[in-house]
Amino acid sequence: MKLLLARNAGRTPFIPAVILLAAAFGKIAVAGVSSAPSAPVVITGADRRPALSLDGGWASIVDPYFSGLFSFHHEEKANGWFLNRKAQPGDTFPTEYDFSKAPTLKVPADWNTQRESLLYYEGPIWYERDFTYQPKEHTRVFLHVGAANYKSWFWVNGQKVCEHEGGFTSFNCDITATVHAGANFAVAAVDNTRHEDGVPTLETDWWNYGGLTRSVSLIEVPDSFIDQYDVHLSRTEDSVIEGWVHVAGAENATKVEFEIPELKAKTAASADRNGRFLFHVKAEGLERWSPDTPKLYRVVVTAGHDSVDDLIGFRTIETRGTQILLNGKPIFLRGISIHAEAPYRTGRANTDKDQETLLGWARELGCNFVRLAHYPHDETMLRAADRMGLLVWSENPVYWALQFENPKVLAKAQQQLDEEIGTSRNHAAIILWSMANETPSNDARTRFIETLAAHARKLDPTRLITAALLVRAEGRTKIIDDPLGKALDVIGFNEYIGWYEQPPEGADTTDWRIDYQKPLIVSEFGGDAKAGLHGAETDRWTEEYQASIFRHQIGMLNRIPQLRGMSPWLLMDFRSPNRPRVGIQDEFNRKGLISDQGQKKQAFFVLQKAYRENAVGKPE
Ligand code: GCB
User: Rounded mean pLDDT of the chain?
Assistant: First the structure.
């Protein structure tokens, strides 16, 4: 699209047919020549900004061939038939793309679970919604998109404002120049087509939910505003809070202030010429955040006319030899893996209630830790984890076999990491950034993920870097020696003894050789069971069989001295097209300890007992 805009500079402006048609049918007035859209911006604490919600019903047009954007010779519409015809006054106009007649889709939500005909849909869908707005002086307006899977394009009043790739991170499009007083309209095209050079790529084991899956809003900030800030507890100095604030469009010597009113901690100085303000402030009497005391403080950052008010907890996380230290003390991570699948209704989880249900179950299980697989989860999930005291493993979607040789794919993974860390860096709950899941061991892969790990460390040196590795075997011995381990602080590994290999008792005679003197987390183990299906312990797919896997696994894992955590696969059943077994899976991965309808399976209680009685793992 960008290319095309450039090619057509000075000629008819590029405006997709759907927008012209919306205009033609009385919904809109088409704006003039579109200026080149700017790249989306990362904003920390966007959910703490005053906002005009654009959630609710959006008119929707399903466009499997993307004919709204491409002509019959698959060229961008700038020179296409629709636009040329439209350009001639008096022409009648085909009415295919008429938003005023289109049915609505709910936002935020995946489209797949909203309409039966869209359950398997992979392709583009157009969204349109009207809104009224009153511009204010010296105010910038961003269209904030919580997530749009996988590629998305946005226009406001007929002008393109941005495009984005990556389905699980939030981004912000500057619409200051396009929004006007009174009636406005926004159009989005969202395309969940899978791509070989995508992140993730063609193969995943989850449903490819498409759409504006997270909240959309308009957020207002002053001309010069705080786009990103990092606030954390010092690892080296007692009760010292440090970090930085970045002011976008800062004028020389913009005054920046950082304050935690409850602790009477305050500091102020001028931002440097790059708009950066580094701070370091004593916070006597600070209560540390932990799973037992998830204390959050109101933090106020002010820069010139801008001010943002956040809720932040303070804790440290580090490793010492094979230990993980939370607030300086060894901890064992009693965890569970979670997909962003909504309890009871399926589809994408994105409400406070969804997240509280999922994390409430994790708490009930006895967890102090959750692995949020396999992509960054919604901001509402991270806020809930902060509130409820659950430590988080946050993961980018480098899943299975990407095109590791392709520099464009690396750039996409880095961009998603920038967005993940840029938006989530102040959540006390997050202790681990995970770079990848089950990637094939080869040089290109190792270089790719080492580059990501170095990038993540640069963005955030205060957290630990991990990845879920694959394991190899020599006879009865399982070996963890993937060269990627060198780049990690904490080694994650997945294994499925009792399900994809051997009966559950296979775990009893398995030995482990770990080639890294680093803390170890078993990031996945488990097996499928259909809730309510009973039988002998040897009968696959039954609750008894799954419970047996958990019993034998726990026995085996207790024999690995450096094990410091676990996040079995997984809390709740989730949709996956890879799971077609009729009557059992019915396109759900059934490795949940809880069904998608909330029924707890026997294995839930096996793990709960082990966690509650501290019968698994040792912190040191
Ligand atoms: C894995 C993957 C996870 C799958 C799981 C399974 O190793 O990491 O995404 O869903 O196995 O159920 O096979």
Answer: 91
Q: Which residue's CA is minimally distant from atom 3 of ligand 1?
A: 205
Using the atom order of ligand 1, give the atom closest to the CA of residue 494. Answer: 7
pLDDT reading at 458 higher than 90: yes
Q: Give the E-state strand segments of 63-158 in sequence order.
A: 104-107, 124-133, 139-145, 151-156
Q: What pTM value is reported for the model?
A: 0.94
How far is the centre of ligand 1, averaged over its atoms, from the C-alpha of 469 (Å)? 12
The ranges assigned to domains in the chain are: 3-220, 236-315, 356-612
Q: What distance in angstroms lies between residue 283's CA and the mean position of ligand 1's atoms?
A: 43
Out of 145-154, 157-166, 331-340, least confident range: 157-166
Of 204, 496, 569, 579, the one to substitute when testing ligand 1's pocket (max ligand atoms within 8 A of C-beta) is: 569
Q: How far is CA 537 from CA 498, 502, 543, 549, in A?
A: 11, 14, 8, 9
Which class would CATH give 356-612? alpha beta
* The pair of three-digit structure tokens given for residue 343, joined into one six-digit string: 């309890």
At 372-389, the pLDDT tens digits run: 999 999 999 999 999 999
- pLDDT tens-digit series, residues 302-347: 999 999 999 999 999 999 999 999 999 999 999 999 999 999 999 9
341 lines ligand 1 (CB under 6 A): no
Give Cα separations from 82 to 61, 72, 362, 376 (angstroms).
Answer: 17, 10, 53, 39
From 541, 589, 590, give the residue whose CB has the most ligand 1 atoms within 8 Å, as the site to mutate: 589
Q: Relative to the CA of 438, which ligand 1 atom is closest?
A: 8
CATH for 236-315 is 2.60.40.10
437 lines ligand 1 (CB under 6 A): yes
Residues 183 and 134 sit within 8 Å (Cβ to Cβ): no
Cβ 395 under 6 angstroms from ligand 1 = no
What pLDDT is attached to residue 559? 97
**With a 6 A CB cut-off, is 163 part of the ligand 1 pocket?**
no
Listed residue (110, 159, 552) closest to 348, CA to CA:
110
Does residue 403 have its Cβ closer than 6 Å to ligand 1? no
Ligand 1 centroid to Cα of residue 398, in Å, is 13
Q: H or E element: which one contains 550?
A: helix 543-557
- Looking at residue 158, what is its pLDDT? 82
**Is the CB of residue 521 less than 8 Å from the CB of residue 566?**
yes
| Token pair belonging to 147 | 């997530």
Ligand 1 centroid – CA 205 distance (Å): 6
pLDDT higher than 50, residue 219 = yes
Q: The CATH number of 3-220 is which of 2.60.120.260, 3.30.365.10, 3.30.428.10, 2.40.160.60?
A: 2.60.120.260
CB distance 438 to ligand 1 below 6 Å: yes
Percent over 70 (pLDDT), the chain: 91
